[in-house]
Amino acid sequence: MTNKLDMKKVKVALERKVAQSYEPVKPAMQFGFVHHNVDCIGCRACEIACKDKNGLPPGPRFRRVMYIEGGTYPEVFAYKVNMSCNHCAEPACLPTCPTGAIWKRAKDGIVDIDSTLCIGCRRCEAACPYGAPQWNPKEQIIQKCNLCVDEIDAGRKPYCVMACMMRVLDIGPIDKLWEGKHKTTAVGPHDETVRQVKNMANPELTKPSIAFVPHSKGKVK
Amino acid sequence: MSKRYATFAVVTATLISLTTLLAGCGESGTATPAQQAREDLENKSELSASYDPLHFKPAIASASNEQCLACHREVIEDRVRPVSPAGVKAEDTRAWYQLTSTYEGEQDTFHRRHLETPMAKALMNLQCNTCHEGHDPREEAPGSSATATSQDDRGFTLRKQVNPETTCLKCHGQFPGWELMRLPGTWDEAKPFFKNDCMACHVSTRTHRHQVNYLNADAIEAAAMKAMESGNSADVCMGCHGGRAWYRIPYPYARNPWPEMPEGMPEWAKDRPTHSDPRFIKTEPKS
Fold it and tell me: What is the ipTM metric for this complex?
């Protein structure tokens, strides 16, 4: 004999459970970007290739090459930091979305978005510590880098990586990139990768899947 | 000839004086800060507006919402799309954290939810400059231009005008370690033992809360007490502190002294600040 469930109570309990719990997807493998801050010449070919592939109007930039300059003569410095979506281990954008337009793939950790489900509340844009979700004012929706998931599924690399003439931008399994065990042109034989560079938001916020070869002035102490 | 020029000069000077006088009367009249800001903007190019002192420290620290919103009107005027491009109706959709009993109203934008909704106005006192501390629009990173803020300024980060670690996290961080609260496990594991009621303990401990100028402390406490009586205090507390904890680290809340504060600093609090950021300390209204 089984007790008959009070479905009203079940519904309330379910809503309470859903309302107060969120566990990020733990992927089998996590893809991430690697960028050499010093060897990058800042040509922005990656930015343009990305805009071209995604048909973006003026305004939104999924990828951004930032020119960091400073110091006082004679000790001046300049380097580039190149970031798009970092496909975080614990993405802040994902749980903010009221329509479920953002999700994380279990097989490779790519944080993808179906912008046709977006109602333009811009919560994900505010929540991301790294400025990845981009507002498209013409369409009134958010769009963002999905690591060219179609290219990945076809066994190729994202457009930004393929456009990099200096070969300083690449993708790979992020754990191996951090450990220096992934063969890539973006990391030289004596280079060491780091998870954070100066002025970047705290990686502990969402655990971004990105590795940098930092400039000496861009290292976080 | 010179007489004609002299007459022309006198007439012009008179007209200028009259115009200035009338303009002066207008200024001393009823122009609100927002109207004044709009009038100022009309006389500026986009470039000069971008470099208005209001966008920089120290002026931004005293900027009113009206002054900011005079130009950045879309922050308040933009609404969500009623229907997404694929046909998802905004009114039919709720995020997991929007299922709490305290969530009210239609879907709205991030900024409107924080500034304009009745609950936001009742419980918070957020200003534009609570989060936006201003910086040179040419700067990709703090300290990289002639008009730069100091290098250790954490007001903004790469690709972001606002640093979530010093803003969002104040309210939306994870609870600090459950061990500190002497719970048998994380709140998700332990909440059934406490009937999912934060106030079971917090009605008597840490009662001097939310004492910062961007929150309405009394209204928050009243909402929590009311919710406790109806048995859903968790929804009220978790609505900010846990339900929206998309960042995986806690915020190091300042241990401002409180009456009967025990002497000495416990080990777990040794890295915590002892006073709130001066710009958020509440000041008594001038009588």
Answer: 0.89
